[in-house]
Amino acid sequence: MRIGVAGIAGRMGRLVAREATAAGAVLVGGTWRAGEVPPGGTPHFTDVAALARHSDAVVDFTHASAVAAHAAALAGAGCAWVLGTTGLSEADQEAVRKAAQHIPLVQAANFSPGVALVLGLAARLAAALPAEAYDAEIAEMHHRQKADAPSGTALALGAAVARGRGVTLESVAVRGREGETGPRPPGAIGFASLRGGQVVGEHTLLFAADDEQIALTHRAFDRAVFARGAVRAALWLEGRQPGLYGMEDVLGMGATP
Hints:
The chain is α/β, with parallel strands linked by helices. It folds into two domains: about 1-110 and about 225-250, NAD(P)-binding Rossmann-like Domain (Rossmann fold), CATH 3.40.50; about 115-220, Dihydrodipicolinate Reductase, domain 2. Helices cover about 35% and strands about 25% of the residues. The protein has helices at about 10-20, 50-55, 65-75, 90-100, 115-130, 150-165, 170, 225-235, 245-250; strands at about 1-5, 25-30, 55-60, 80-85, 105, 135-140, 175, 190-195, 200-210, 215-220, 245. It has a six-stranded parallel sheet with strand order 2-1-3-4-5-11, sandwiched between helices. A five-stranded mixed sheet has the order 7-8-6-9-10. The longest helix is centred in the middle third of the chain and has 16 residues, at about 115-130. The radius of gyration is 19 Å and the shape is elongated.
């Protein structure tokens, strides 16, 4: 399979390139910005459209500002897409949905197989534990360079809990507390974000009741786990029909609540 990497000179792009080669795929090349230094010998493509025309799948961990343009380019080229960019607006997400009508794509906030499993468990626990009795809180910590908060994975955890409870995350999310906040709203899903050092990623989902607590924690120690999962998703897309898939599909987990 021919795999291209958008933003191949970036931290994640380099890892994806390495993992694609290790998996036996053909590394077509990638895109990068002026001034960036890509892995040695990497073929350069001036834009994603050109990269897509030479690839069976493009892996993309670039920036939310590029998502709409990438969606149009990849759909136009008929190239499969693995999208790990987070922080998307509703307009960006709509562009992704439209692209999925024409190409197969896997979108995930986190390509770690372990996180995919935790998301499935989060939805099942939320469906089983009454929201009025079990308060849901999500804490995450990342390296000091991370620009968005809460993290995409934290929001995916919140969405999984909301889905299990049959509500929308937007209607119950509390994304920070300061000052006299008053009592905790029943059914709220709270978020806390920590930043420091070079923490790759830590996420904990806590269900707290009066008489017990349940915690799900995932810790990533090496970014390679995300790159390896993204390459696995790219290989899985070969021969798939157009559609918007997730890592639960790649892992064969089936539907969650």
